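Good day; I would like, with your permission, to put a structural problem before you. I would ask you to consider whether the tokens describe a fold that such a sequence might reasonably adopt. The full record is reproduced below for your convenience:
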Amino acid sequence: MKLRIDVLTPFPQLVEAVVSTSILGRAATKGVVSYHLHSLFEFADAPHHKIDDEPYGGGAGMIMKPEPVFRAFDRVMEQVGPDAAPRVIFPSPDGKPFSQADAVALAQAEHLVIICGHYKAVDQRVRDQLVTDEYSIGDFVVTGGELPALLILDAIVRLQEGVLSARESADTDSFGQSSNGLLDGPYYTRPREYRGLAVPDILLSGNHAEVKSWRQEQRRAQTRERRPDLWKQFQAAERQVTEQENG
């Protein structure tokens, strides 16, 4: 099953520069995903092709007009057929915080449409009528929706079968399916010593059980230090498992 991803954006060249390279580009080359980029300016009214206007009721900033977005979405639906039911994603600071669990769920979809906002906001009718999923990538605001869209897109595409050379790598990442809620720990590679900094002896011991134990302890320590909120969740989950095992 090939995942189709449509991106509606005023600046498709920003998206194209990323999805055509590295892992995202490889996914398209392998036929795992297909990217379809739509410039919203092409769907705006002639002769000026404006995609923004002043807000009703006054206030600072400009609002993205509904017509270009609805028309671009209609074009997508004409291409895929009326029976298609894509997940329509809108990155927004007031959306639900995007998580690895969301990436895993969206990776099961056959068709995703991502709408990239700009200016102060997008006309609310777009969000009410077209959007199925609104996500925030953090408590901050950026100029446009392209960068958040690409972060979300990357998290989804790398989970597609055949994209990564070793799927286990994704499963053992921070927030991966095998992480048990812990952050990932430190890793080392050759050379054994560099600028007076040596690789921990345990990783050179050849004792796989001890290496596994060391890595788990590193994950626990890193989570405890850097993400106290996740550490509390991990401890609560551990207590629940212990209580269930003890009857």
The CA atoms of residues 6 and 161 lie 20 Å apart.
